[in-house]
Amino acid sequence: MEEEISDFQNCLSYPPLALEQKLEDVCVYKLSVKEDGSLEKIAVVTACRYAVFDLQVRRQLADWQFQYSKGKDFVLPIRFRLDVRD
Fold this sequence. Notes:
Keywords: Membrane, Receptor, Transmembrane, Transmembrane helix. This is TonB-dependent receptor. It is found in: Membrane. Pfam families: TonB_C. This protein has one domain: 2-Layer Sandwich (TolA/TonB C-terminal domain), CATH 3.30.2420. 33% of the residues lie in helices and 29% in strands. It has helices spanning 2-11, 16-20, 51-63; strands at residues 25-33, 39-46, 73-80. The protein has a three-stranded antiparallel sheet with strand order 2-1-3, covered by helices on one side. A hairpin with a 5-residue loop joins β1 and β2.
């Protein structure tokens, strides 16, 4: 499941509006995945402070095909952080 979480986190797009406003956030979701690899249920464990992040996560989860977590429940931590380099 660690690989599944990492794969999704690495494919998650930073919302342009949040990038523009230099917003960062941390959210945590509990997911239930069907046997066919599609998302069955999503529950918020730690809510995003900014709705733009929640919308982005939900949008991408709706299209995500799970490979390793079929028929399972797991916790998905998401961290939106700007990579600022000098």
